Amino acid sequence: MKKWITAVAASGICVSLTPSVAQADPPPMTPAYAYDCGHKSIRPAEIVITCADANNEVVDIDWSVWSTETALGRGVWTINPCIPYCAVVPSSKWKRTPVSVVLTERQDDGFMLMVLTDGSGRNTVVNLRDIAQA
């Protein structure tokens, strides 16, 4: 017996005497949600940024990627200029800007950050934590 142990040790073979335990795969992550004034949805067509009056929102969103970690799409950012005041401005006078939309920074079950990039490359960052609690 002693010679066999010496031969195994000299050959560089490693033998484990402990039983192996199968590792369970981690549960798959559920899809992340976008928050829109207290509502959560997957691949929403619009996201309202100002919940009190909806005078600032991204509409007509077409999502090209929606994963557990990020979402990418294109849409139109619409803003009511509120001149002379918000209630009297027809929607035809709202500022409409085509943008790319990136949702990221997943926390729990939803994205917490939205980045809007216009045609000139200017980024606007929107904290969705505020929208989630509206």
Describe the protein's architecture and organization.
It is a single chain. This protein is mostly beta strands. The protein has one domain. Helix content is 11%, strand content 41%. It is built from 2 helices and 8 strands; from the N terminus they run αββββββββα. The chain has helices spanning 2-11, 128-132; strands spanning 34-36, 39-41, 47-48, 56-66, 71-79, 95-107, 110-118, 123-127. Strand 1 and strand 2 form a beta hairpin. The longest helix is centred in the N-terminal third of the chain and has 10 residues, at 2-11. It is globular. Keywords: Signal. This is Secreted protein. Residues 1-24 form the signal peptide.
Layout: helices, strands, pairs:
Blueprint: H1 2-11, E1 34-36, E2 39-41, E3 47-48, E4 56-66, E5 71-79, E6 95-107, E7 110-118, E8 123-127, H2 128-132
Short summary:
With about 130 residues, the chain is mainly β. Helices cover about 10% and strands about 40% of the residues. A six-stranded antiparallel beta sheet has the order 3-4-5-6-7-8.
List key phrases describing it.
2 helices; 134 residues; disordered N terminus; two-stranded antiparallel sheet; globular; mainly beta; six-stranded antiparallel β-sheet
The main β sheet shows up as: 6 strands, antiparallel
Provide the domain count: 1
For the biggest β-sheet, the strand order reads: 3-4-5-6-7-8
Class by SSE composition? mainly beta
SSE order: HEEEEEEEEH
The radius of gyration computed from the alpha-carbon positions, rounded to a whole number of angstroms, is 26 Å
Overall spatial form: globular
Report how far apart the termini are: 74 Å
- In helices, the fraction of residues equals 10-25%
Number of strands: 8
* Mean pLDDT across all amino acids: 82
β-strand percent reads: 35-45%
Structure annotation, total helices: 2
Low-confidence stretches: 1-11, 13-18
Protein name: Secreted protein
Signal peptide: 1-24
Keywords: Signal
Organism: Tsukamurella soli
